[in-house]
Amino acid sequence: MRLFYHDGPYGHVHDDEDHDHDLDNNMLWISDHIELNTVGIDIGSAGTQLIFSKLQLARRGEDLSSRYVVVGRGSFYRSPVSFTPYSDNSRIDHEEIARIVDDAYKQADMNAEAVHTGAVILTGEAIRRENAQAIGDALAEKVGNFVCATAGHNMEAQLAAFGSGAARRSYDKNERILNIDMGGGTTKLAVVEKGKVTQTAAIYIGGRLVVTDEEGVIVRLDPGGASIAERAGYRLQLGDRVTPDQLQAMGDWMAQAVVDCIAQRPLSDRCRDLYLTPELQDLGRIDGVMFSGGVAEFIYEREERDFGDLGLYLGQAFHKLFDNSRFPWEVLPAGECMRATVVGASEYTVQISGNTNYISDHSLLPKKNVQVLKPEFELEGEINPEELAESIRFHLKSFGIQEGKADIALAFHWKGTPEYGRVRALAEGIVDGLQRTIAGGRPLLIVLDGDLARTVGSILHEELKLSNPIVSIDGIMLQDFDFIDIGQQLEPSMTVPVTVKSLLFRM
């Protein structure tokens, strides 16, 4: 792993003592600063693209925390956007995808060994293809040391909100922003407040649900495209010829439907049928809307070419809404449009743990696709081990998980001081609550947001005499329903990369 250095007075050494002092300071600085090469690979309904970025992280030493935070990020290579290749209506062309990825790595002068982390994300209609998950998993294995495969509408909505710049703007200006990411197959919605995504949703509207050749003959018709065409007054099927007026009518219908799905309450049956996720709740005050995704290129008039799909017509339809005052929110200036999701995948998918971890066996890592459980137990004040154990067992039962059959990660939010008695009680509660896991010899995976992972691991192993493998890491914030990948320990910072993701294919 390459590390970045600050400028310093190296070379001005006058004796061995000064030299040793400078080396010590240098190594301390290195351990507190990390630079990672990351990759984002977005295989979407319409386009496939890659972005390579650098993340610079520093330890939060000012508050005596071991947690690392991102202090700089930016891309250093962006591939051309290629149409996502399909071998037929049910499968993605894996050989052509591999060629696109290999070409991008060559152009970026990168190889798998130089990539520390990142994500392969399949989005929109691409998720529905029969071999989507196999392609995602295969690419994740070949393109870097710790690259995860992920899919899911809510995940994509979050990545788009960060990649577009909506999250940054909401933080900088203290605004509540709605990010509307319109891709080829779906439209993702994210409400962002003070830099945090508070709600996500997705609806079945996209710019490439109908594709025609140069003669206007339909060569691709997704189920959502046929349904929308019918609602706009047309019955379409593959091989039919459509006119620009018909495509514009579909675009007009979709643009109005997007507004209605967001603003209308209660929802009409039409809108309810379009939602692919639970609907947005309590929209509240919206200070502005930012558009991203491929269709946003037309909405912001940065693209005017007709690609034989609905993108151009959707852009024109939104401008009709703007001009007739039928769009109820202020439209904010453009950030990233077409590349918002892949920027999010490259620059916003990874968290770095603190450097006070406990890993009993480094061959355990990496661990991929581990389900997170966060028991509803407040770790503040006096901790009762029996009550904590019961909370763990109840949470496992609530999620229908057969303990001891698969790896799980227990996540906790720590409150208060890390006094020995309190930490010991936490460790005892974990042991009591995971008896089948321990009896079966499975690893204990524990994730904390406070700086006590090493102490917890030491108590489990040395005082409570557990022989199970233990991975106890801190500085990471997780929730129920998360899935995580845990990477190998990074040297010399002694940190661990953790990717939080969704694993929803074939929706």
Automatic annotation (TrEMBL):
SUPFAM superfamilies: Actin-like ATPase domain. InterPro entries: ATPase_NBD (IPR043129), EutA (IPR009377), FtsA/MreB (IPR050696). Transmembrane segments: none annotated. PANTHER family: CELL DIVISION PROTEIN FTSA-RELATED (PTHR32432), ETHANOLAMINE AMMONIA-LYASE REACTIVASE EUTA (PTHR32432:SF13). This is Ethanolamine ammonia-lyase. The gene is eutA.
